[in-house]
Amino acid sequence: MLEDFIGSGTDTSSRQEVTRVRWSGPPSGWMKVNTDAAFSLSNSTGSTGAVLRDHSGSVRAAAARFYPCVSDALMAEALAVRDGLILAAEQEATRVVLETDNATVATLVRSDDGFRSVIAGVWHEIRELSLSFASFICTHVNREGNEAAHLCARRPSASSPVMSWVGDLPNWLMEVANKDCNVESY
Questions:
Q1: pTM of the full predicted structure?
Q2: 8-38: per-residue pLDDT in tens?
Q3: Label partner for 162 (CA 20 to 30 A): which of 7, 18, 30, 151?
């Protein structure tokens, strides 16, 4: 019976190909800012990364910042969202889709309960920044759809705490951004 149970779901002739989209563009006329954070528990440091792209996937700007004193990973992710909105505002985006791979932060940004959370101060800043756009949407994205922001968050350090790229983008960012826009099948 055990062999029948194990073998019952392994018919390879009926397997379907799974298609995964790594990154999807916002609607035409909108900009999408992806954010991510890195956090080190051992020394309570963090860093953020943000990538701003248009509907075709073209990177308009990217930024990364090191934080020498961060309480936890949730705070680092909230700082990344704030930094992403600052980047979008600096680039004069008016309609913004913000994506973060942290579901808790995405939920707090969309709710009125953020003022009761440990990220309350940053939550207020995020809410204020979101009001500067004509339209604003915050969504959760899986980690695979956030690779460019993840790589940006790994770049800054105490010796190079602030980084930004506009116009002349580094090759590593262009490679991952181009790869993000492609569909992979496996």
A1: 0.85
A2: 554 444 444 444 557 888 999 999 999 999 9
A3: 30
Domain around 106: 23-173
Question: Hey, what are 157's tokens?
Answer: 């350090």
Q: Hey, what are 173's tokens?
A: 């960012």
**Could you give the C-alpha distances from 184 to 18, 25, 92, 128, 145, in angstroms and in order?**
9, 16, 32, 37, 12
Q: Is residue 52 part of a domain?
A: yes
Query: pLDDT tens across 52-88, in order?
Result: 999 999 999 999 999 999 999 999 999 999 999 999 9
Q: How far apart are CA 75 and CA 141, in angstroms?
A: 18
Burial class, 104, CB count within 10 angstroms (exposed 0-12 / middle 13-18 / buried 19+):
middle
For residues 10 and 89, what is the distance between their CA atoms, to the nearest angstrom? 51
